[in-house]
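Usage

Read records sequentially. Each one opens with the input sequence:
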Amino acid sequence: MNTLSYRTESVSAEKAERKWYIVDAENQVTGRLCAHIATILRGKNKPSYTPHADTGDYVIVINADKVRFTGHKWEQKEYKDYSLHPGGLKVVLAEEMLTKFPERIIERGVKGMLPKTKLGRAMIKKLFVYAGTEHPHVAQKPEAIKF
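and closes with the structure output:
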């Protein structure tokens, strides 16, 4: 019987090497930016990607208030929340969301692209979004990446 000289190694969440990345969202199209961020949070950009383990990296997003949408999405895109009570639907347009909570545009976009499981909830905790250029994660020495 022949034995294989190679094996596929599964990396556990404890053994995963995690890096910190910083992304400047200024003049970036929101959907494309969120897709790249979700890929990094899942760890799909690494050769050690393991689907059942949280092996992704940390992502810091700055200038979230300067993202852009294509077409007429500023006037037409709606963010809906429902309180589970009759008449409890709240609808906020994208331009209102930008003025009130600019971080939530990216947070909600990325969250929608992650798994809807415990694993996805763990991955979203590694995302840090800030409206301005300042962030409190200087000690982690994040590596800047461009998309």
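Summary fields computed downstream for this record:
- Residues 30-42 form the longest helix (13 residues).
- The helical segments are 30-42, 73-76, 94-100, 102-111, 118-124.
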